[in-house]
Specification:
With 129 residues, the protein is an alpha+beta fold. It is 24% helix and 33% strand. A hairpin with a 4-residue loop joins strand 8 and strand 9 (109-112). This is Pilus assembly protein CpaE.
């Protein structure tokens, strides 16, 4: 899983998020940075209302949270979502020592300890232009 820091950087770089079932996210800066949530029609669902998009928490027992603005959530995209976002820029995923390198069309290698983080770094470079 990518780090909250990488996810924040992707969001700041302009990676759009349209929440769907299975997406992971964190509600940052509210004392819950270590809690990873997953959108699921059974417990957390996306609702588009007149006030904007919200994430509704159904049946949570840990604490009383009905919903939160989607903008308050930090998306933690998984490997497939990051690879899809790279699009045609993605050339290869290669093992490198104890980590992975994502190679993009220009031959640049983006290296990190796991594949998701390497994909995130490659996408950050692409979004930076």
């Amino acid at each position: 899983m990518i780090s909250l820091e990488l996810a924040d950087r992707l969001r700041a770089a302009g990676l759009p998020w349209s929440p769907v079932s299975g997406d992971r996210f964190v509600i940052a800066d509210r004392g819950m940075d270590d809690q990873v949530w997953v959108v699921s029609e059974l417990t957390i669902e996306v609702h588009d209302g007149p006030g904007g998009r919200t994430l509704r928490f159904n049946g949570t027992t840990e604490w009383a949270l009905d919903s939160v603005d989607a903008d308050a959530a930090v998306w933690l995209p998984h490997e497939g979502q990051l690879r899809t976002a790279l699009g045609a820029a993605f050339r290869a995923l290669e093992p490198v020592g104890d980590g992975w390198a994502v190679v993009t069309g220009d031959g640049t290698r983006h290296i990190d300890v796991d594949a998701e983080r390497a994909y995130a770094r490659a996408l950050l470079a692409q979004l930076a232009g």
